[in-house]
Design brief:
This protein is of the alpha/beta class. 41% of the residues lie in helices and 18% in strands. 38% of the residues are buried. Helix 9 packs parallel to helix 12.
Amino acid sequence: MDNRTIDVIIPTYRPGKEFRLLLERLKQQSVPVRRVVIINTEKKFWDSRWEQEFPFTEVHHIKKEEFDHGGTRRKAAELTDAEIMVFMTQDALPADRDLIRNLTSPLKEPATAAAYARQLPNASCSLVERYTRSFNYPDKSSVKSREDLPVYGIKTFFCSNVCAAYRKDVYESLGGFAEHTIFNEDMIYAFAVIQHGYWIAYAADAKVIHSHNYTCMQQFRRNFDLGVSQAEYPEVFQTASSESEGIRLVKKTFRYLCVNGRRRLIPGFVLQSGFKYAGYLAGKNYRRLPARMVRWCSMNKDYWRK
């Protein structure tokens, strides 16, 4: 039996009633969670009753301008001495009681430093986003190492803090998450994991319900931030191209819509893909843009005040 201590870390911003359900499902896990460390942005939006209802929670409040995708998670990691840290987002709902068991099980292998969960679409998810989820999070588990770069390319060091588990000893030895990053703190760390000879596991049997129906403009801004993170960490993202993976997804989605008689969705899909790529290219070249335009394009506007 694996008796390692497990803490869950969740950054929150204006959490609603669905967050209470997340805490309830973490409480019911077949492998116990010792503590849930919550880094909440803006105290006035926090429901303090949850702390009484779920005594395993530990809440730390920060101001909105203090939040940083990498820095906030880095500080949260310093608050725990658990042997395994599970990072989640407030909108990721455990699909069953075995999420934590199945997510942390691959970490029993000494060479495995991180594992991430499968993301399933929620009930309101669009057909295109539902297919995207199945493309990025298939039903078959895998383990990736440095030797897999020729096979997986950029996905060799793909990892998602929507729901991911990390060995604390390896995390500390590699320096942890980047102090300041607009996006992709999980992949930047995963790059270090792979480069130092460790493995990353994709645990398909560890499932969370998580999806979004972004508008075209929201996709543009999200991909702008993605492009910015790649421009700021070229040593990570120049190792393997992410554009080829994006093109592969577009082609497979187009084929899926044609084969399944959903051609009427193709114009909207093409338009959304155009917004994604435009945002990504603008983000990659953000240093050439006026500061006001950069902030307008970005989803994480507070990042540019630092």
